[in-house]
Amino acid sequence: MLSLENFLDKDDRRKFDFLRLLEESSDLTALNTTIQAQLSLSNFLFNKTIEELSLDFENYGLEVYFAIDSTNVQTTLLEVGQATSDLLLAHYLRNSLSFAILLALFREDYQSANNFALESYTSYTNVYSHTQQIKKLLKELQIEVSKKYHLAGNEGNVRYLLTRIFSFVLASDTDVYPDTYKSKVAKIIDELSETGISLPRNVQTKLFHFLAISLMRHDKQYQLAKKDINKQKVLEKLKAVYAQEFQVIQTFDIDPSIQEEVLAYLYTNGMLSREKMKNQELGKRINRLNERFIQYFTDSFHIEDRQTQEILAAELNRLHFELAYFPLNAFNSFERFDVSFFKESYIEYFLFCRDYLMDDAFVKEENFSAYRPYIFYKYLMILVSHVELERVMPQITICIDFSFGQEYNEFIKRNLTFFVNLNVAVQFVFDESTDIVITNLNSEYEDLDVEKVIWLDPPRAIDWAHLGNQLLEIRAQKHQQANV
Amino acid sequence: MENKKKIIVLGTLVLFSTALLLQEDVSFANDTIYSPVDPNQEVKPVAPSDVPEEKTTESSVPVVRTESSSKEQPKAKKQTPKKETEKKTMQRKKLYLDEAFFTNDFNHQAIALNGGSSGGGQGHSEAQLTETLKLLSGVAIYGRRK
Q1: Which residues in chain B are closer than 8 Å to A472, comparing Cβ atoms?
Q2: CB of B94 within 8 A of CB of A24?
């Protein structure tokens, strides 16, 4: 929902987009004309961007990770797989005026644009325009910048937004927080892991920022909005389900409202037992959302067994709780998440989730518009991980028949586990269920009306590619037949 | 000292005079331009439009002998390596979860599962699966390396 690159200046944005375009191109190479067209760069800007990028790599010590090689036809990114463009983005943000202003707003030492300009050795107009731009971005999240240049408005959003930005830009560098807060938060995280709730690195870092920000905001007298009764009920229920875990959290010397937030954080990040959540009802709104989704799901796929529905309900509980009451992770940006793999391999779920979320009235009514990409991705993940593909699509049967003996056939079969996402079954004797034959015998299956790929031994890359293409075609046919 | 000064003075003189001489060679266009076909007709110059893209496509496309492609196929038919580079740098169609993704006017072509049929024209990008297979052959799965 929140694209961090929106905080970049025009020049940095151009350089970042350039790097990302290359990074996402096949073979990390793109035609110069393509790049120029996509980023609308003139020849001059194109060359300038490459020069500036190389300089930036040097300045930020990134030349060990990236280099750009450009001929007059195409441009290639050389990289060693130790960094992505996110690293450059973090550096740009960290050195940007926007970030400095945001940090000052958070610390509340921004007095006026004039003052800030003097302190940061830049012009008044520069600071003023950046401040205006930030105000605009914040306004979309119902966050206001008060006359005294303090962050106000939707307090939850203030904390989520700052957590999102600080954990991305600063990562494990926590020097922006005063020492008292740092040691307090570190102690809490230590105690959590001592009591058996151990957190992955990224969950831990984010929790650190979230807690430090929450505590500082709390001490400055910013309160989370008064909870409505529904939210209170849901939180009580959550505390009851995870009573043991909440007991630990309650020993922390922090405000009860923040204790609840810690529990919500652990729950939404999947750090608490799945089993305990089975057959639990958190609240009316969450239930309604769960049921609506499951109903739509059963109607589309005719999967009605209790077990699947229970598992789905438990997973949906978490997602819908998150969306309604603790959307911290939904602040991550999913707009640039390329989902074409899922379209290829999980077309049924892919289309289902998209259809489900295309109901504009529903999305608006639930206030989900801003989170739509995130929800799509989450729904898709829930289905992919909890409903086996063979339940919604017919199998593809592959017959393997080589002239090198049964061991060889078995060996090829093992290599086909690669197609785990395509729901394939393997046989060694041809019958009417066979969809495709893999063989090295040119004429053996000539008289039969069946798809086949003839392989050279050992198979070349192109042989595998042919098989892949044929399988996808069969997959598409089966999908179409099932939906006629 | 004297000599040096003289040299400097002379040098500057020479420089200035050449500059003046050269400048005389430059003839500026008159305000009015007449058609060479019909000298009575006045011609208005067309304002130069700055559309650099056109120029670059012209100048860059025919030059395909980049180091990488010429290395692969030293003396093959000239057509093939060109196709290769074009295909290589072909932008894979990406599917992003932007606002348009959830609307009906989203390009249905992009959403429909049209299989990995490689038969399409040059514009058709290869399925992700196929591309991955090619890379993994001989590395993670049995076969020869690409």
Answers
A1: 115-117, 127, 129-130
A2: yes
